[in-house]
Design a protein that fits this description.
single chain; about 240 residues; alpha+beta; D-Maltodextrin-Binding Protein, domain 2; 2 domains; eight-stranded mixed sheet; five-stranded mixed sheet; 15 strands; globular; disordered N terminus; IMPase; metal-binding; Inositol-1-monophosphatase
């Protein structure tokens, strides 16, 4: 497998990332020629229809390289700027998360409901690390404050699957800094439709600064714990 790096030596891209995006983009252009497309590996076409597809062709590339199963293809579609449907497909896990705005979310066709935990001390929290040294140092610093306040931390290496895991109640909550739209577009809808509160800093939508998905009873406490730190240098 041919591999190269993007923002840092730990930010890996493979020939499969590019081939997967080309495959998805080509198929979409065949069936939806007027739609826009935003992809991790460079696709950025605004389109003319008001519909845009947001694609992460291989979320969890490092996991894939090491033959770990936590990797996925993530595809969302937005209409006039609002995500209305999403799918996160993890072939090695045999798992597919789906969601449609206002119509719920599912894991392999089974409807999802996120965790009902109300005490942060009892919450299993997923997170992820960025690629730059500066961001990783900042994230470890935050962890030293988060770890004593929660049940435990999990780091699985693919944001779309972390959001899916939160939606399925496999973890109670999730947070991460440094995400791009293709990292969270589909997974955030899956989590929202499973009843979780999903957002960023100070009642704003998810952004590069922060993403949180948590039960409504936990969201503010987790947010305030994380908001005490200024965002680290963006990836």
């Amino acid at each position: 497998m041919t591999e190269s790096t993007k923002s840092s030596p730990t930010d890996v891209v493979t020939a499969l990332d590019r081939a997967s995006e080309e495959l998805v983009a080509g198929r979409l252009r065949e069936v939806r020629p007027g739609d826009g497309l935003l992809g991790e590996e460079g696709a950025d076409d605004p389109g003319t229809s008001g519909v845009r597809w947001i694609v992460d062709p291989l979320d969890g590339t490092v996991n894939f390289l090491y033959n770990l199963p936590n990797w996925a293809v993530s595809i969302a579609v937005e209409v006039d700027g609002q995500v209305v449907a999403g799918v996160v497909h993890a072939p090695a896990l045999g798992v597919t998360y789906t969601a449609a705005l206002g119509d719920g979310s599912a894991r392999n066709g089974v409807p999802l409901a996120g965790s009902a935990v109300t005490d942060l001390a009892h919450a299993l929290v997923a997170t992820g690390f960025g690629y730059t040294v500066e961001r990783r140092i900042a994230q470890v610093t935050v962890l030293t404050r988060v770890v004593p306040r929660v049940r435990d931390i999990r780091r699985m290496g693919a944001a779309s699957l972390d959001l899916g895991a939160a939606a399925a109640g496999l973890v109670d909550a999730y947070y991460e800094r440094g995400l791009h739209p293709w990292d969270h577009a589909a997974g955030a809808l899956v989590a929202t439709e499973a009843g979780l509160r999903v957002g960023g800093l100070h009642d704003r939508p998810i952004s590069n600064d922060l993403a949180i998905a948590a039960p409504p009873a936990l969201f503010d406490e987790l947010h305030d714990l994380l908001a005490a730190d200024p965002p680290a240098d963006r990836d």
